[in-house]
Structure formats: structure tokens, C-alpha cells
Prior knowledge:
The protein has 548 residues and is α+β, with helices and mostly antiparallel strands. The chain contains 16 helices and 18 strands.
Amino acid sequence: MPESLVQPKMESRFFCFDTYRNETFVMKLDINKKADNGSKKIEFIVNPSLLTTVVNNLDNLLAVPTGCGEQNMVKFVPNIVVLDYLHAIGSKEQHLIDKATNMLRQGYQNQMRYRQTDGSFGVWQNGGSVFLTAFVAKSMQTASKYINEVDKAMVAQALDWLVSKQHSTGRFDEIGSVIHKDMQGGLRNGIALTSYVLAALLENEDAKVKHAVVIQNGMGFLSRHFDGINNPYDLSIATYAMWLNGHSLKDAALKKLIDKSTPTNNQTERYWETTNKIEATAYALLSFVMAEKYLEGIPIMRWLVNQRYVTGSFPRTQDTFVGLKALTKLAEKISPSRNDYTIQLKFKKSTRYFHINSQDINVTKYEDIPEDTKVLEINVGGIGFGLLQVVYQFSLNLENFENRFQLDLNRQNTGSDYELRMNVCANFIALLTDSRSNMALIEVNFPSGYVVDSNPISEQTTVNPIQNIETRYGGTSVVVYYNNMGAERNCFTVTAYRRFKVALKRPAYVVVYDYLNLNHNAIKVYEVDKQNVCEICEEDDCPQECKK
């Protein structure tokens, strides 16, 4: 593990000209003053189609562990969204369609591991989750358009299980593991989860008929509580459910939602300020599209585009699922087939030109930028739409990170050079409005030459039990999962064994982070004793000084 971590950044501008226009965009790069020397890389990218980045990065949208049912969906859902988009724009690029379809098939097979005996789906393999069952069912139903493997009877059984959990009031509450506290916590009368389940039912044509009474009861619950829905996250999902249902309150809900939005960047962007603002803003955009307010949706699209990672995905599974879906739905309405514009790029004392026409739907243009550049000026003239991005990165020393977890490591004396045993403890650093994390992961990475056996974890604390243990990269890394973390100490002992002889051992590291908010983390580096050549060489290969 190096002493520094690479910090990827991206600045984006989206434009949509329905008539011939000319506009200039300025991008300022946010490079930390403490960035390591020689670590900066800057690249300018022109995407004539909104989802080109996503299409080109399908196989590495999110490089996160997939050891639970919800995480696995991030390998599954984006393929559905991209296939919807490719079909909507009439793409003839069969290799992309084949790629997405094959990955969809793999994701489907993996997800079946988390199906419970009662037809529900669980975060782990120990019981169903209302949230995850709704998520999987709505995704599987859409996937069935593209792969024959999806068993529609299985989807129907999942929805049957789901509706059986409805209260007499019409509300849904979580009965399984809580990993998405804003969605599942029910602290605000269960509005978010109830709306989410209703959307899953309403997006399934068969379920709309079969479970009409359940939907009616759920909508009754939302309408009775409508005046009290003031949290933007709850309101955004409830508004989407109302538009799917064609409910009499749908227009009032959209107006209320607009009133709670936050315009930014000189009114060119719009979002909803709340704990899960990407997800809330994406649901809002879906409602705008359903209301056919396409032009009003463009500022929302601009803001969402600016939140994406370099791969085109978003920070969390649900952000990626809803964010890509919302962007796709609007992108379907504003086709890139009319593109005809010229881009003038200025940086320092240099100028570059790019011309884009309607044949360049999936052609991405790149330009390397000198590392000492601080500002780029981009002028666009013509008609059509496109995505302008500056992707850059730099390395930052670990000492400059702000922690939201307390992480402590204690190497134990085993009396053997071949055994590494370490006690790991972590807890969440609470703030007034943030007393517990979402699902928390601790990744323990081992020095060169060390691997774990089949039972690497022992002596775990029981106040907040470990939910899952995943061994990765041939036993050189272990990931420990918790439903969440608070102020309590969460400890365990991990043991690894030296299987390979390595003289120069690099430092290794342990990291703890909130799965739904990667900015909440802590990282610690540790070392094992270096070995000299005489300790690791074989007899015939040892230098002379070892034979004395």
C-alpha cells in the first residue's frame, strides 16, 4: 500500500441546443494544493451521446465488493438501463448490445444466490428484505425483455411475498436487514419504502392488475399523509409513484417537489438537497419526464451528470440504478440524431477544435491536457446536445484525509514469522444528525506473501454482529460486512499466514467505509518485519554470506 491514494475527479457540462446557438463554458479544476508532485493527469472528453461513457464502461461501472444481494445488483441493473437506451435510439452497434446482454445474464445467475425459500430476496442468505425484494423484482421484470432466463413466475412469487407484508393502513415497513437507512428506516412514517414498493408494482403490468387492491391501499396511505410529506427524499419517490399511478394528487405533488428544489450554477442546474440528494433528484427527473416537462428536466439532467464517476456510474447502487434510469428516460426524448456543432477548447496558450455530427453518436473524442492547467474555456456553436468532461486525478497523502470512522489496529505477538495476527477495531464517529452509518465494510489487505485460510476471523464482538465475511484476491484480502455502525466498538481478530517468501514487503492497509457514502471512511497502514535474503533463499541459491 503506498503512502498516498489516487483521487479521481470529474467536471462536466451538458448542453442541449434545439436551435443553432453559441455558448461558452468555463471549467475550473479542483486539485488539492497538497497533491503529490508529478501525480496529476488531466484529460478533456467530448461525448456526443449522454450514455456513451456508461456503454463503454459496462464491465467496470463500480469496482466494489459484491458479497451481498444489494451490491450484486450494481453488476446487473446498469446493463438493463443501457439496453433500454440502445434500443430507444435505434442503435445498430450489435457488439454493445451483445456485451450488455451477456453481462445481464451473468448478473441474473449471481442474484439467484440471494433468493430465499419463500420467494423473497435478502441482503444476506438469512431472510427476505422488503426493500431488496422490490428492487430485484422490478429489475428482473425489465431484464426479461432481453434475456430468456428470467422466470416470470419467480418474479410473481417475489411480488406476492412483497404484498403480503403490507400493513392494514397501506404502509410497508422493512422486516429484513437495514442497509439503506433513509429508505428502510421508517423514521418518517414509512413514506419512502411504501412509495418504492408501489413503484415496483406499478412498473409491472401483470402486478398492476393482480395487486390493484394493494396498490389502492398504498396510494391511500400516501394521499392521507401527503400534506405532511416535507422531506425532499420522501416526496421525490412518492411523486414518482403517484405519476406511475396517475393519481389525482400527482400534479400537486410535482408542484410541491419543484418548490423544494435548489437551483444552482446561475439557474442552469437544479437538484434536491437531502441526505440522498442524487437518488432524490433522479426520482424527481423521472416525474418530470412522465409529466412531459422535458425542457424543465434539462437543468436536473445537468446536475445529475455532474455527480457521476469517470465510469459514468454514481457513488451508490441506488444512485446508479435510479440516476441512469432517469438520464436514459430523458435522453430517449432528446435524440442525438440532430447533432451538428463545433467545439473550441482553450487552455493556457493552446487551442483545439472538434467537429461533431449526427454520425458520431457513440464516438468519444479525447485530448490530453498539461498537468499545470487550472482553467479550461470551451465554446460550443451549432445544434444538438453533448457532454463535455474534464477527467483528472492526483495523489494525496493518507495523512491529509478527514476520517468519519475511528480505526485501530493492534499487531499481536504470535512467536512465529509465518503467522500474522491482528486485532481490528472500528466505530462510526457520530454527528448530531448522523448517529449511525449505513452498511459498513472493513477491508483488511495483507502484505506480499501472506494469505488467509478458510476461517480468517475470530474473537469478534457481539454487540453489532458481523453479517458476512468475504475472502478476495486469492486470500490476500478479507472484507467484513456490518449492517451499520455507531459509537460502539466493533472488533475482531484476523489471522493470515506467510505462504510465499518475499524479501521486500510493502506496507499493507486496512480501510473501513460506509458502503452508501464512500466519503465516510478511515484508513490505516501497517507493516510486517522485513526479511533478509538469507531467511528466504533456498540452499543452492543463497549468496556466500548466508552459508557462513
